[in-house]
Structures are given as structure tokens and as C-alpha cells.
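Researcher: Here's the sequence for the chain we discussed earlier.
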Amino acid sequence: MQIAQQLQDRRGAELHHDVHWDAMTAEQKIALYNLHRFGYRLLFVRHLHSGPLAVISQQNHLATISAHGEVDYRTDIQLRD
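Model: Thanks. This is the structure I predict for it:
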């Protein structure tokens, strides 16, 4: 939750979780649903030319889920400071 709080602090206004959830593909939702039991939570969704990229976290660890539902646990995603 520390990462999620930092993102909220930087952005100012927090977008409602449903906005991000609705932006995800069905494959991403299934992948995230399966990861919930391990403590992963949805932070936000980036809109890329290749499709939506879901950014998730487990405590201080970031991961991403591609539009096809593939999870990248070693993501090189950069968050704003």
C-alpha cells in the first residue's frame, strides 16, 4: 500500500478503482484475480498503443499485466518521483 499512497500523493486526486478496472481487458482481469490471493493489488492502467498495461503491486514490488494477460514480475516500468 505504500506505493499506492505515494502515487496518490503525486497525482493529488485519486481516480476511483472502477475507472482502472473498467480499462482492463478480460485477460488482465483474470490474471489479477488469480494474483489477489498473493496480495497483488491494481494500482493503475496505462494506455499504450499496444493496449492497456495494468500496473500492480505486492507491498513494495511492482509488476505489470499485458493486454493479453501476461504477467511481468520483472518490469522495468518507471514511476514518477
